[in-house]
Protein: Peptidase family M23
Organism: Treponema bryantii
Amino acid sequence: MSKTQKALKKFEKQVASNVSHGFGAFTHKVGRFFVRIFKVFDSKLTIMIVPHSQSKVINFQTNVFALLLGVLVTIGVLASFFYYNRRSISANMEISSLVEQNRATLASLDELRDENANLFQAAKRFQSSLSQSLSLLGIDQVKNNSETSASNGDLSALFSSTEVTQGSLKEVADVKELTSYLEDAVKPIEQIGKMLKTQQNLFTEIPSICPVKNPNYHISMAFGPNIHPLNGNWYIHKGLDFSTWRSGDAVLATASGQVVTVGFDNSFGNYIIIKHNHGMYTRYAHLNSFRVKKGETVSQGQTIGTIGNTGVSTGPHLHYEVHIGSDVVDPAKYININFSK
């Protein structure tokens, strides 16, 4: 074995010896430290309680470990008390907030129930009006609604029902029933719409609008027996006189048709006669000017002339007549005229 190897082995043994000696010294010191700590915690203490009176002095013995343990337990108990007390206060505040929210919710529910009741009253009126309208139009309501109200949501059965669930569930059931009824009401309303659409031409063919465009008119002479403004004798006035206190206001065709006469008469002055369907004619007299020609087709509401003071007239006005065949009828029966103007 060479000298280098011997020196290396000697160095290794010396290092191992030093490490072993150092570890043993460290272990010894650690042991002595824990022994000292144990002795400190195991130190005996005497606690004496001396009352102010002549009572017997109270004393008891303990050690440091037990005293520290008691202090830690006391601190833990107090900390737990304050922690859970704070949690309790927070929980009470949350409960109070929930109570207030519950009160607000109940108030909203009461308001909802009131609105629900108002909705039902409106639905009743709607049902009555719809039934009357359908009867006038000759549309038969679905009979099985009254026979199977539970499945179809017939409103009459809905209003007479008293054995449904109480409370908020009752409102939910009522709303569902009402929704079902309204869905069933859509079909007859659609039928009304279709009927009105098919009858739209009929409405435009009947003299049903005011012949004067200016809304500030007044009826200067009604249809029927009147005193003639010139000779003072009673006579039958065969039309309505519309006055706007001035010439030049537009005169409208009260229904769609064909212009058959555009001319002048000593009595009527400038006048127009329009032929409509269903054997009806309308006459517009005392005009200032014409806006249509003979043979022209006009639409309801179209301007055909202007108010004037031609012919036998005491002032600017429109004399308007409605004829059915050879009969002269009161135009007020076909248009909504306010005689108080």
